């Protein structure tokens, strides 16, 4: 997919020519006829030159015809964006152009600030075009931008519906304000959900009691009330409330209640029953945790083995834990079965089976798609964004050929685009490729000079920095997460402010490659000092926080048995993060070491 941010940058020349924001079309100055096109003299860029000429003439109809007739290409997307933004184009047509852009999947999901700004732009055009439903949807996607909130308020006058919308997108405080301005009291269930999302459980309970006085059999109200009572620590009342629900809801609630009371054996059995009745893998994983806490690893082992054979996020975790427990319990047959369930190209699999052996030399045939020459021509004339864009369009169409995918990805990485190029190569790794060129592109040494400089400055291996960067941002410098983590190394604002103070650099930019890598490498170095160089602790602390990981590492169970560290991390995200970053680190360090990189570079220059 092409990045909307990339498109915006590439469209600057069109925006200037079309006078985006002007009240009317401006005649093109006569002297412009003497201006030489940057695409002049490049036969492969004749269409770029033709579009540029239409722009200079102010030929809106010609540009519209071009986007209607042209095949999928970066130039078509660029022209679509310019037309969508041109005030001389009727609003309804501009809205249609935006629809085409959105349908093409042009928005880079990691660039959340730019994504929100783009949807805000779409919303404004759709609203002016009278497309209220489309505008409301776009304003909602642009939340929590203040202008987006105003748009939602403007287009959705009903306070209750507005509050539901805001609650659904994770803005409970805004939902509460919407209800406070409502002309009548809100429905109790909606008010209770808002209060519960805000952590105000007493007020949520008041609303639910009010609802159930009027409608004693209201199922959602009864369910919400049971969970609120549990959150308030009123366990006897919660037990009675859960006991009146249907079988699955009752089992789920009583399992949580038993866990809260410390009755781990009971909780384990109830979670096992929940998994059996609902088919939820998460319930089975929770059952194993409770049984281990109860000191019953023998009872947990068959559940781990069962979970390791299901398609779920817990599959690898369960297989590795089954292996550990089976070996500890002396069950060689189960240990062998568990080891066979560990994926080879993954961290836990590498611990058991060793690292993959790549081919000694690349066997990919020479692939020279025509777009490589076109991209080179665009780069020569200084249109780097278009060069990247053309390669990305071709990359999306090259999924059936490993050689072509790798050739395009290498060209993209030469231009500094690492995210989608690495993702395309990774898909071939998932199909079993052992070609070193493919692995090199899937695990690029992105921004090598910067990474090597700051890794050395803070005493961190550059391979660790790349492994963290690959997982955190997929090498996209303007990535923003749902928790507002920023840039290549995905540093949250509070940590960024702390690091800026330590490094005495308040002016540092989280979206600068150099600044973000410098801060991220410094933070990794600090964690290395804190955890005595234990990489697994360092990696999990980078994701989950040093306080959280430090508390787990200090547990008596972990002191007795280091293998318990993995199991006692109760956050799925952090467990997955550990495996993916440590796998990347091993690949960068041991599979694609310096010698291998030199071999791959030579193979690129002289393929078979």
Automatic annotation (TrEMBL):
InterPro entries per the UniProt record, alphabetical: Lysozyme-like_dom_sf (IPR023346), TPR-like_helical_dom_sf (IPR011990), TPR_rpt (IPR019734), Transglycosylase_SLT_dom_1 (IPR008258)
Domain of life: Bacteria
Record flagged with keyword Ion transport: no
Domain Transglycosylase SLT span(s) in chain numbering: 451-549
First and last residues of every TPR repeat: 185-218
UniProt-listed SUPFAM superfamilies: Lysozyme-like, TPR-like
PROSITE patterns: TPR
Pfam families reported for this sequence: SLT, TPR_19
Keywords associated with the record: TPR repeat
Annotated protein name in UniProt: Lytic transglycosylase catalytic
Record organism: Truepera radiovictrix (strain DSM 17093 / CIP 108686 / LMG 22925 / RQ-24)
Lineage: Bacteria, Thermotogati, Deinococcota, Deinococci, Trueperales
């Amino acid at each position: 997919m092409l990045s909307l941010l990339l498109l915006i940058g590439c469209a600057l020349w069109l925006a200037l020519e079309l006078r985006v924001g002007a009240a009317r079309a401006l005649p093109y100055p006569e002297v412009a006829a003497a201006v030489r096109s940057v695409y002049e003299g490049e036969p492969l860029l004749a269409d770029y030159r033709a579009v540029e000429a239409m722009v200079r003439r102010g030929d809106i109809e010609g540009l519209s015809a071009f986007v209607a007739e042209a095949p999928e290409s970066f130039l078509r997307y660029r022209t679509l964006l310019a037309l969508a933004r041109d005030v001389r184009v009727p609003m309804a047509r501009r809205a249609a152009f935006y629809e085409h852009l959105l349908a093409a999947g042009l928005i880079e999901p990691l660039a959340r600030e730019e994504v929100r700004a783009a949807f805000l732009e779409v919303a404004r055009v759709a609203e002016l075009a009278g497309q209220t439903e489309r505008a409301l949807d776009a304003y909602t996607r642009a939340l929590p931008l203040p202008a987006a909130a105003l748009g939602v308020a403007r287009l959705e006058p009903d306070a209750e519906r507005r509050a539901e919308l805001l609650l659904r997108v994770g803005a409970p405080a805004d939902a509460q304000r919407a209800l406070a301005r409502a002309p009548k009291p809100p429905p109790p269930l909606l008010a209770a959900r808002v209060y519960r999302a805000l952590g105000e459980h007493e007020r949520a309970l008041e609303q639910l009691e009010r609802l159930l006085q009027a409608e004693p059999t209201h199922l959602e109200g009864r369910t919400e009330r049971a969970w609120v009572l549990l959150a308030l620590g009123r366990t006897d009342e919660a037990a009675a409330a859960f006991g009146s629900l249907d079988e699955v809801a009752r089992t789920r609630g009583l399992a949580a209640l038993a866990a809260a009371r410390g009755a781990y054996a009971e909780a384990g059995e109830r979670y096992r029953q929940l998994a059996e009745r609902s088919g939820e893998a998460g319930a089975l994983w929770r059952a194993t945790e409770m049984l281990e806490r109860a000191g019953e690893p023998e009872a947990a082992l068959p559940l781990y083995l069962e979970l390791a054979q299901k398609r779920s996020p817990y599959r690898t975790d369960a297989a590795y834990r089954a292996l550990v427990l089976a070996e500890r319990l002396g069950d060689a047959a189960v240990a062998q079965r568990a080891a066979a369930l560990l994926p080879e190209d993954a961290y836990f699999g590498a611990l058991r089976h060793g690292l993959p052996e790549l081919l000694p030399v690349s066997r990919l045939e020479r692939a020279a798609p025509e777009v490589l020459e076109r991209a080179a021509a665009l780069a020569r004339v200084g249109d780097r964004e278009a060069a990247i864009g053309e390669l990305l369009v071709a990359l999306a169409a090259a999924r059936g050929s490993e050689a072509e995918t790798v050739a395009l990805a290498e060209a993209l990485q030469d231009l500094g685009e690492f995210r989608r190029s690495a993702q395309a190569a990774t898909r071939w790794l998932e199909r079993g490729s052992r070609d070193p060129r493919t692995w090199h592109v899937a695990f690029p040494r992105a921004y090598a000079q910067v990474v090597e400089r700051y890794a050395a400055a803070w005493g961190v291996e550059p391979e660790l920095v790349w492994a963290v960067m690959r997982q955190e941002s997929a090498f996209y410098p303007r990535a923003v997460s749902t928790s507002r983590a920023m840039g290549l190394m995905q540093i949250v604002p509070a940590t960024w402010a702390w690091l800026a103070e330590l490094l005495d650099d308040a002016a540092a930019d989280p979206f600068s490659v150099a600044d973000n890598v410098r801060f991220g490498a410094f933070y990794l170095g600090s964690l290395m000092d804190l955890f005595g160089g234990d990489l697994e602790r360092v990696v999990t602390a980078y994701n989950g926080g040093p306080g959280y990981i430090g508390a787990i590492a200090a547990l008596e169970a972990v002191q007795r048995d280091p293998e318990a560290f993995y199991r006692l991390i109760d956050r799925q995200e952090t467990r997955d993060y550990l495996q993916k970053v440590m796998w990347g680190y091993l690949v960068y360090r041991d599979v694609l070491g310096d010698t291998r990189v030199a071999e791959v570079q030579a193979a690129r220059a002289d393929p078979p």
